[in-house]
Amino acid sequence: MSTSSPTPIWFITGSSSGLGLALTLHALRAGHRVIATSRNPSKTPDLVTQVEALGGVFLALDVTSPELDDLISKVVEVYGTMPDVVVNCAGEQEARAQFETNFFGPLKICQRVIPAMRERRSGVIVNISSAAGVMSKPSRSMYGSSKFALAGLTETLYHELQPFSVRVLLIEPGAFVTPFASSIQYPAKPTPEDYKDSITDVVTNDTKKFADSAPGDTEKGAGVIFEAVMREGAFKGLVDANGKEWLRVPLGSDALGRWRNKLADLEGNLGAMEEVGRSTDRERV
User: Fold this and answer.
1) What is the pTM of this model?
2) Cα(60)–Cα(40) distance, integer angstroms
3) Three-class SS of residue 37?
4) For the chain, where are the E strands, in sequence order?
5) Residue 247's closest CA among 152, 175, 149, 183?
6) Which residues 6+ apart lie within 8 Å of 42 measured at CB?
7) 224 Cβ partners below 8 Å, 6+ apart?
8) Phi-psi map region of 245: left, alpha, beta (phi>0 left; psi -120 to 50 alpha)
9) I need a labelling partner for 187 at 20 to 30 A (CA). Which of 158, 165, 230, 255 fits?
10) What is the pLDDT of residues 164-204, one digit of tens each?
11) Which of the residues are catalytic?
């Protein structure tokens, strides 16, 4: 991996739990420099101590804060330069807040780190999306929509930043054993009567139960993300027919299943609508 410093500097949001925490510890144990962040580090003093004992730095950072510019400046001040690897892995909220956290937060961070990465012709941006950003489910409208938006942003950046040697990765995990399910903010209003016992109601209730039954191993997931960033392990030399690094990294057998279902759905939809689509072309003289 090409970086601007001898030892890569990581900047990770959402470091207090789940994949963000696992990746923070993985990078530190690999001897890398890590700036870990969460909304309120004072709520996890033992974790802050653990990160600092491994040589990391833990800062308070809310990706939805209007003072984000000042907070990013503090991140840069830690080592006197923009980090080499930026990982957007913040948590979940409800409705408009979900978009602030899942889409606008990563967008604002990207806007602030890209100029320096582009200028020095190096860097890696890692956006943690979800399999829900590939194929959404009933009851996941806000979450799925925010992840679709993040996927669209990340895909665009992937193409835009290639001429500047800035790499972009879109991580799409399935269900992992994280505090996700227990921290989800469900709508304050009860489920409308029309949706009682519907697929929407079933999925909502299943989501509340899946924290301990999720198939994904957080430590393994963090290890794969680390290898993708460093181009190690399975990612060494892993490129497409044009020699370009792949954008999307699915994590978990359930994520792969979601991919396959989406591809089958698109193929069927394309076959059914191809003639319809062509029928709107202008007549050629």
Assistant:
1) 0.86
2) 6
3) strand
4) 9-12, 33-38, 57-60, 85-88, 124-128, 167-173, 248-251
5) 152
6) 60
7) 233, 234, 249, 251
8) beta
9) 255
10) 999 999 999 999 876 544 455 545 555 566 555 555 555 55
11) 129, 143, 147
